[in-house]
Amino acid sequence: MPKKRSMKKGILIAVSVFAALAVLLAAGAAVVFRREIATAASVKNEGGGLYTMNCTYDYNLDKLLQTGVTSDQELVDFIAANLLRGVVRVKVDIGDYACTTFNARTPDGGFLFGRNFDYMPAPCMLVRTDPPDGYASVSMVNLEFAGYSFDYMPDGPFDRVMTLAAPFIPADGMNEKGLCIGVLELENGPTHQNTGKTGLTTTAMIRLVLDKAANVEEAVALFRGYDMHDSAGCGYHYQITDTSGASVVLEYVGGKIVLHHPEQAGKAAGCQTAANYYIEKSVDDPKGFGQERCGEVLRTLNASSGVLTADGAMRLLGRVSMDGRADPNGYVCDTLWSAVYNSTKLTVTLCTGLDYGTVREYSLFEPAQAR
Q1: In what order do the strands lie in the sheet with 137-142?
Q2: Tens digits of per-residue pLDDT, 81-128?
Q3: C-alpha distances in Å from residue 361, one per residue of 42, 228, 343, 345
Q4: Residue 127: enclosing H or E segment and its boundaries?
Q5: Domains, the chain, with CATH or none
Q6: Rounded (5°) CA angle 344-127-293
Q7: Mind listing the pLDDT tens digit for each residue in 203-233?
Q8: Any bridge partners for residue 188, and if so which?
């Protein structure tokens, strides 16, 4: 009998020790991942397939810039090792997409950047970041790139882990200096520069610009400072605007950067638009598309002397949205989100899932207000 009591006591002690170790490990993990946990806990379902997240952890951009990334897989490996500490298997799949962008002035002298993101139906996320060594920003992310879908949404605590990759896969955004950027797909194949500079992929470059550039000139300088390695086997160009009213569309032609400034004269001077075709006339671009969308944008801007309210800009985005129609290359797209960034007031107005009757306005620093 005493032996049995001793064995039972020993088992209870062992269980207690293991329980204590489990608690300590959990507590240790909570300390190590406290900012990541807080970031994931901030994920909010706003409705209409839109989520928001406040990123409070260090996503280590400066560390990424030390080594660079030259492919989507290298970006995935960096996220897994440095953001998720190798604990979680990461999958980031950046696809191709159709889009429209433009810039305009507001009646009170401010500046707007309008953007449609066209893709197969998927949830999306507005991500707020405020790095200690960079500018605060808001950016939009297609959550399908992080493995989500309307059948698998980041609603549960354990379903939100992959949202931690969101800071490195933005498609458009605005920072606290009023610098706006949006990327648009091109059909002539990817750019892979090899000039000896540190390499960055498409979305990593957007992250860099939002964190470090105060204006168009600084953004262009950042592009010039790194070798571009396009994501998803596609080419891209970028429209970039700032609070001075400057706008540029940056393209890669023959592995070199070509800048296109607004060609509009007269009443709509300074306004510019881009879609899914090269602006550079020397490029043979038979698969380029979206000219009719840009045509509608330019007609509207000319008719309004380049001046739009946020509501007017959203109506224009609605007119050039994709609603399940096939583009000339056979891709069937919907407009996942329409965004109007006010770089003067530092707000973004969003409509998602082609629901232009539901408009949500977000401040770069404050919670959302639906209207």
Answers
A1: 44-47, 50-55, 124-129, 137-142, 172-175, 180-186, 235-241, 247-253, 256-260
A2: 887 655 555 555 565 567 999 999 999 999 999 999 999 899 999 999
A3: 18, 33, 13, 11
A4: strand 124-129
A5: 41-361 (3.60.60.10)
A6: 65
A7: 999 999 999 999 999 999 999 999 999 998 8
A8: none
